[in-house]
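re: ur question from yesterday

yeah so i grabbed the chain u mentioned. its 157 aa long if i counted rite. heres the sequnce exactly as i have it in my notes:
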Amino acid sequence: MAELTHLDEKGRARMVDVSDKEITERRAVARGRLLTTAGTLQRIVDGDLPKGDVLAVARTAGIMAAKRTSSLIPLCHPLPLTSVEVLFDAQGEDVLEIEARVRVSDRTGAEMEALTAVAVAGLTVYDMCKAVDRSMTLSDVRLVEKSGGRSGHFVSD
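ran it thru and got these structure tokens back, copy pasting raw so excuse formatting
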């Protein structure tokens, strides 16, 4: 098991000191799924909901969330993100896949920013659609790829 870097020698939470790490180009990709009813997904795709263009608002919310991750997750470093993309893909009749791609040149990676972007984009879709479908479920939020830094390239199974 890897050492838990967010704990000091006495087991207290701490922000990891990354000052000795090299600045490298880093990239993270995260995904999640929003399970809906077929009718709700079609209305999202068609832009036919009372609150307007759900995907445009959710995309913006995801980007904003990535930029604010260090304010939301206590031990995350603030990062000067160079790129954030939030993408949506309707799969079948009832699944909206959400993907976030984040890039930064820094001493630490952007995995948390990508994960936060996916979660907030999904929650935004839920918020904008709950009047027509309260049964939606946000699930499977996960890191699917990261590159850069000491730990190298990671791709999930």
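noticed a couple things. The mean pLDDT is 92. also The first helix runs from residue 38 to 46.
anyway ttyl
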